[in-house]
Design a protein that fits this description.
Helix content: over 70%
Largest sheet: none
Strand content: under 5%
Structural class: mainly alpha
Radius of gyration: 50 Å
Order of helices and strands: HHHHHHHH
Number of strands: 0
Distance between the termini: 156 Å
Shape: rod-shaped
Length: 208
């Protein structure tokens, strides 16, 4: 019986040591982990380390760039912006000039009104100076055409007739008509009276 008791006591002591060594009381031993948990922690640690190294290298490289390089880039960006702004402004002005020139070069139909003299009279009575200026110009063109001093054609422009007539009064009359024609500069009675003087001088063939 004594031998049996010693054996049991020995076995109990051995079992207790095994439990203490492998942590059976609280669960698995600290160094006994699932392989997937170990791999996940190692992968996460590797990514964090790589990200940290990339950003660290980037900031370190940027810090090594000389300051004059940054100033040069800044000057280039400002220059490109100024060129773009100036180009757009010039393009807009050019387009506007082309549009205005196209309007000024539209042909004038001197026979669109059957009785321009009567239309002129009604416009003056109504104080419609825009229409009075238009009719004065139409009357002048009709007179010059019928007198053989110009050859009126639907395809010709007001500037074509200015070159054909070659007189300053007719040029002034044409400019006044063009300003009023598009409604940009409303005519006044004084301006219409000037066009009448220019018309009479042009018809006489003299300078005024």
């Amino acid at each position: 019986m004594g031998a049996l008791t010693d054996t049991l006591a020995l076995n109990k002591g051995l079992i207790q040591r095994m439990r203490d060594d492998y942590g059976y009381v609280d669960g698995l031993a600290p160094d006994m982990k699932w392989p997937k948990d170990t791999m996940a922690q190692e992968t996460s640690s590797s990514w964090s380390s790589n990200d940290s190294n990339i950003f660290s290298d980037m900031f370190q490289w940027l810090g090594q760039v000389p300051s004059f390089v940054w100033y040069t880039l800044l000057v280039l960006v400002v220059a490109v912006m100024l060129i773009w702004i100036l180009y757009n402004l010039r393009t807009g002005e050019k387009g506007k000039k082309v549009e205005e020139t196209a309007e000024d070069d539209l042909p004038v139909d001197i026979y669109a009104v059957d009785q321009p003299q009567e239309e002129l009279r009604r416009a003056v009575e109504a104080h419609d100076w825009d229409q009075a200026v238009r009719m004065t110009y139409i009357l002048t063109l009709r007179y010059l055409h019928e007198a053989g001093r110009i050859q009126w054609l639907p395809s010709k422009t007001p500037m074509d007739y200015v070159l054909a007539v070659g007189m300053a009064p007719f040029l002034h009359l044409t400019n006044s008509f063009l300003r009023v024609r598009f409604g940009k500069y409303p005519a006044t009675e004084e301006e219409w009276r000037k066009t009448e003087e220019w018309r009479k001088t042009t018809e006489k063939g003299g300078e005024g």
